[in-house]
Fold each of these.
Amino acid sequence: MSTQYSVIGTRPVRHDGADKVTGRAIYGADFQMAGLLHGVILRSPHAHARILSIDTSKAKAYPGVQAVVTADDFPEAPDKMVDLGEGETPLSHIRGNVLAKGKALYRGHAVAAVAAASLHDAEEAVKLIDVQYEVLPCALTAPDAMKDGAPILHESMRTKELGQKTDRVSNVAEHFRHVLGDIGAGFAEAEAVVEREFNTSTVHQGYIEPHAATALWNNDGRVLVWCSTQGSFVVRDATACVLDIPVSQVKVTPTEIGGGFGGKIPVYLEPVAAILSKQTGRPVKIVMTRRDVFEGTGPTPGCYMKVKIGARKDGTITAAQAYLAFEAGAYPGAMVGPAGMTVFAAYDIPNVTIDGYDVVVNKPSTAAYRAPGAPNAAFATETLIDELAEKLGMDPIDFRLKNAAKEGTRRADGPKFRKIGCVEVLQAMKAHPHYSAPLGGPNRGRGVAIGFWFNVGLQSSCTIAVNTDGHVNLVEGSTDIGGTRTSIAMQAAEVLGIPVEQVQPVVEDTDAVGYTAVTGGSRTTFATGWAAYEAAQDVVRQMKERAAKLWAIEPAAVQAERGVFSSNGHSITFKDLATKLATTGGPVVGRATVNPRGVGGSFAGCIADVEVDPETGKTTVLRFTSVQDAGRAIHPSYVEGQMQGGSVQGIGWALNEEYWMNPQGTMVNSSLLDYRMPTALDLPMIETKIVEVPNPGHPFGVRGVGEANIVPPLAGLANAIYHAIGVRMNRLPMNPPAILQALWDKK
Amino acid sequence: MATVFIPALLQGLTGGRSKLEVAGATVGEVVENLDRAWPGIADRLVEDGRLRTNISVAVDGEVSPMGLLEPVAAGSEVHFVAAISGG
């Protein structure tokens, strides 16, 4: 903890802790109100099919059924771009994904919905909807979907190349290219070159709480929504666009959220619940099953990559080249752009070429997942970096340090890095006792890897009202996923000079707080924290005015330090001054809105020890250390929690998780029994080392810590497996069958 | 004058030039001036009076929340990059 702060860097109990550990917190599925109906969605059994007809008559006649809707019940508003806070999406894609029209583009694509008095009635009635399909051939991987003659998902789609629409009818939505230096000259200079192809599977964020939403189309014409989301304003704006009503006609109240990781940014249920409510005049709640979540929401892309890196004998990397083809799922947006921007971002390489392809396939439309695109890309790069270090006879961390990106390093996509902590993270890895600890046994190996994520800024709002007992109410709009109520409150408390326990943070609905973008992109402690910092400064300014009134002096003559206002012999605490608000001018409310610059990217690294059983192919993680540059760790426990969570998700992605698809495009492991996420019993304690290279762009130096930690584990484990059994894994997941196959191939 | 880095896929419009010195007090003005010298570039970057979806502009390494309205100083570096979102 830094001595310059009273609150920043401490580990207070989270404000929402009591409600969460006692079960009082209200999550999406917990929501109840009088007259509530239950909705159930009918999903396509085919991965690619033309919808010839939908007959809802039998379902409508089922006892208890109040309404049945299809895409035809949505207004036919002209297509337009919808700003979802982190970027724009065509309305037609949002609407088409919420309820399919014309074609079902993946198994699990929503086709119709029923609202009934009981969940059981709705489940029975939905089976009576008669949909006639013309089943079409499907394309399930990027390479397959890019082949000549591949089934085309969107007949009107043409490949775009930076704003230029080509005449190619294709499943490739977009192609981009980054070029730096002279790739030919760079490889000509190289004395060691490694090149491999890599494939990764579709994986899901795996949040424990399934999606849940309740909507009431009120008699006054307003649509009220209660839902589990990473961004209430995103839900408001997307729902309003799909329903073709003004955004001010929609009010969204975020419930508590049981995980999101990027997957709870898109809307799936809210417009459907709203249209069912409009037809019935009653509130309608829809809760997904786990199978709905796997089949009907956005996982992160599988991909095909071909990457090549060359270096001189002295360990200087001279050139790097990447071909990245990412599966977008049913609609464009495969996160291949960030993959292309991060694939070589950790290194200072003078000659680089990167080609990226955003490819639609007959799988659920992908969504963000912690540092979207970067883990896939780092799996390829960091595996090759390890291989190159071995070829050159260098320690893998020393090799990375020799080429590490620093302030002023130009990335392949153009801009130069500002202040970053890549070198400091590598130095912390090298110095960590884990790196030099003995492995102690056969078939054991140690791997390291690093990764980068940009983080984002975006808009946030905050108000702080002073109570007469010296406590303050802090109103914000950022859904609290990982303890951000407290990390935001701590920044306000630091400015106000009061204990964080005297700040009561509240996450409010879209009517009660100014626009606030999603809790995502590692932005909340950075941006909403900054809004809280500014709102607290506004409170301090007003409190100085009140103190000045008491002492009949100018406000500029009042100093504020650690919760005490003073001037020339006068002194009063924040708490005592709060008792005098009514007589000095009335309530004090600070406010701030921000759309901040100064975003600071974060580097992370991992050290992983594994033991591989050559008989079964099973990999056991023996020890795992996560290292990350937090900029400034506002609440170190929550930073460590993010590092541990991201590491565990990365381990699952590396070793077990995959959408196991049959040739017809059906996911055959759509339960948490068969989709094998790691549990506490599978893993050692994840060790953490926080590095602090303060971000000069933020008042407290915050960088954002929610994502970079998931980037290194995929390659870190691949490298550890190589050092254990001598096979380079180039396909995820590295599960027992894959390991055994690799061992047999080696023989 | 600002230094504008031309994305690889637009260099066909600039005779293969990857960097150009361009006048302009804002990104919008820079794009207008760029388009005067190398017609067609504005159409690839701008749609309906703003940067195209999925394109952001970075000035001196900082991705701007203001897009075409972002001020540009003499000697600034201007890059057109993919818009970033996170999880």
Amino acid sequence: MERKRLPVAAVVAGLVLLAVPLVLPEWMKFIVTLALAKFLAVLAVALFLRAGMVTFGHAMFYAVGAYTVGFGAKWFGLRDIVLLVPLGAVLGAVVAALVGLVMARYREVFFAMLNLAFSMMLYGVLLKLYWLLLKLYWLTGGTDGLSAGAPTFLGYAPPREYLRDFLYYATLLVAGLAIYGVYRFLASPLGYYLKARADNEIRIEYSGESVRHVIYVTYVLSGALAGASGVLAAFTVGHIVPEYAFWIQSGDFVFVALLGGFESVPGPLVGAIAFEFIRTYASKYFPNEWQMTLGIIMLAIILFRPGGLWAIYEELAARFGRREREAERA
Amino acid sequence: MRLLTIILMDGTVFAAVLFLISVGLTLVFGVLRILNVSHGGIYAFGAYMATYLAIKILGAGASPYLTYLMLLAGAIIIGMVTGPIIERVFLRRIYGSDQHITLLLTFSIFLILDDLLKLIWGTKPMFVSQPYTLLGEFSIAGIPYSWYQVVLIVVSIVFGGALVWAVRGTRFGKIVVSVINDREISQAIGINVNRIYTVSFTLGAFCAALGGALIAPTISVTPGFALDATVLAFAVIAIGGMGSLEGAALGALIVGLLRALAVHLLPEADLVVIYLAMILVLVVRPEGLFGQVELRRI
């Protein structure tokens, strides 16, 4: 019963997402594209939440992806999204493979805060580098950041009015691939060990798997996801600033994972889309209380609905399903 | 020589304030086993409240010496208000849950505090300099220093000493140690564990607020310096060993001096140096300099 229901829901969701550019106005298209792009990074953070670990630093890999676009355009004239997404993912994974050497040894508060420390170090470096670049290259301009420029798709530069649609479908494709990949990862033995870590780490080692290895592999994967996320977000926003690596960005990722529900793979997607809309409206009606809004929603979720929006959906679906079955019986 | 004096003096003054903040964080972690991310928010609140009260009392035409009392009052008010509220209303619901839940909960409280601050006092910087200038100056090697900086160091040492005495030498301290070691047994022998939790958390909050209140006259308080405090204090207690009072003192000195070194020799890298130090210490000695290796329980 459940097994049948889920693919139907997935197909419906897929169709809705495919139809987005055809029906939604331009500004909403932008929001959904950005949400899909950030979803990848949220997925990375959600992987760790499943394992009972929090990271306040994944903006680090997100920024690596974004700056791949910025520097790629600036120094090498790279603008092709088909090239840059894998490149950003690989660079994110490489950085994660280095940082992960340290990080895989730590858990809990140390893991959270060391991630924060690393990402703030990167933020500091980017800030300085950014001023340096400003001095060296932008003496003339009043620009305040690296510009992403318009992406090309396998060398094809779409006309301006269709650029958003192209970008949207590219992002959707990458997000779809990521969902598939993460599903496969979670269904693998490593994925199960990852989930089991939240319950009991020592039992995993008794069963012959190294927890450090599990976390390291997950860390590299999360770096790749966040890196790809940064590339797509940079193209969507068109503008790259050091704030990509700032702790507020990392905090947003954690928040979105929690909002959508990190126990499932679609949860972060729901969360990411909800988040961008909440932010758009919140900044319109109460611009100065944005963080407070986030904090209050997060408190409410932790205290009352730890599964997030996705858990609410599942609850509703289960109730609906039960009623249907009762109707069939009667 | 001149530069060395500057670095030593700046570092010690900064370490003094950092110690006050960190000792609160380490106390809360030791007793409640919670890393309180909102600690920096309480620190910022302490700074704002103290500055606000000091400005008010100066505006009322009172003797400027009363500002010292106001700094202390600000710290006490913030500690007594935020501490019990956060512990009783929020933390109490999640004791015993996983670490990541407590991290997320205190993180959301941090977000709320950070904005609440802006709502109450606005985004304009606030500054009260009287407590700083009132005590006059003296000079070491030709560099003028305010006596207020000496006061900071003395207060910090006295406060740290009092805390060590409270934990090691009093009945309350013995009870706290017992709760740290085993919550259930402590409850079984008749200790009101919930009350110890509330008192410890409030004391921790007061430490943060006091740190904020005392540093307020030396800087102008602006929004956004709260997170730095949390991260720096975490670096301090991670270096010193989580839950260790001596560790907090040594960690604060290390971080304070490193930061002063970086600020004067390599100003681009002031935060980077501290994070690097933290990472180095944790790689070599994951439990921190004074920390105890925790047994892994099945």
